[in-house]
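Quick one:
INPUT:
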């Protein structure tokens, strides 16, 4: 990954996070999240502090960022633009354009919108072979239904279900999900080519 001076701290942190993940510290990334998603994630995190948590709200306006910061205040969250590479537990990303890069380092991806008008893009994290979780409003999205049918994506209605699902992600199951995701992406290559090319450009830029 090539980094300009402004992005240097982030690149260093990504490398450190990847090392952490490889040494057993999992990373939970919530992408394009809304308030309804974040309140559930907060309850989940209260019982899963062994994860590093990165939240990327759909709306990165100052009001929304502060709202999420306040929600997680007991964990001393840090904003992406304030971070200089130090250790953290919860990071709130207040910048657009880096979510796709982050997914490549996630252990679990949560996609927002499922408790509102509908989920956001679930293929972006799926190309990395990680489990994808989202709320109940997904039936208008064929890929979500397909991926649930293959047990590589999971829908929840509440925090209890989120806890139950994430507790089942053993290393063996994560490997099965990775393989299943690769098969699904390959079988639907025409539909995902543009996304993969877009992600490749972002990762290598």
């Amino acid at each position: 990954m090539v980094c300009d001076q402004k992005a240097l701290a982030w690149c260093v942190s990504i490398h450190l996070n990847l090392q952490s993940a490889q040494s057993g510290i999992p990373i939970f990334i919530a992408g394009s999240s809304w308030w309804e998603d974040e309140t559930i994630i907060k309850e989940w995190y209260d019982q899963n502090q062994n994860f590093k948590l990165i939240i990327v709200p759909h709306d990165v306006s100052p009001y929304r960022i502060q709202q999420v910061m306040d929600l997680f205040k007991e964990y001393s969250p840090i904003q992406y633009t304030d971070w200089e590479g130090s250790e953290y537990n919860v990071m709130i990303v207040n910048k657009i354009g880096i979510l796709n890069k982050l997914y490549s380092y996630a252990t679990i991806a949560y996609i927002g919108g499922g408790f509102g008008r509908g989920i956001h893009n679930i293929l972006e994290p799926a190309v990395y072979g990680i489990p994808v979780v989202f709320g109940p409003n997904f039936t208008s999205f064929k890929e979500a239904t397909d991926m649930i049918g293959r047990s590589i994506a999971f829908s929840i209605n509440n925090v209890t279900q989120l806890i139950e699902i994430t507790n089942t992600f053993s290393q063996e199951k994560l490997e099965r999900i990775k393989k299943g995701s690769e098969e699904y992406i390959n079988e639907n290559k025409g539909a995902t080519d543009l996304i993969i090319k877009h992600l490749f450009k972002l990762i290598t830029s």
